[in-house]
Design a protein that fits this description.
This protein has 2 helices and 4 strands. By secondary structure, it is mainly alpha-helical. The strands form 2 sheets. A two-stranded antiparallel sheet has the order 1-4. Strand 2 and strand 3 form a beta hairpin. The two termini are about 30 Å apart. The model has no long low-confidence stretch (mean pLDDT about 75).
Amino acid sequence: MGKMNFLTLWQKWMKECVGSATLSVLVNNNPTNEFPLEMGLRQGDPFSPFLFILVVEGLDALMFAMIENGPLKGY
């Protein structure tokens, strides 16, 4: 994301969204203590398509550089 000129603060927000989450459950209308969730994304997470696009854009840039400068040849 840094090479795609995203601001450092924005990169930090994205990392925070993926890397940290806590959950509290209501039991008899009283919240329990918060507990940490597993890190990462799950199927159906609304954030998944956005991150997929970012990753594919990075992969596209790497593949283009390999074709221009490296051993790969384009169609």
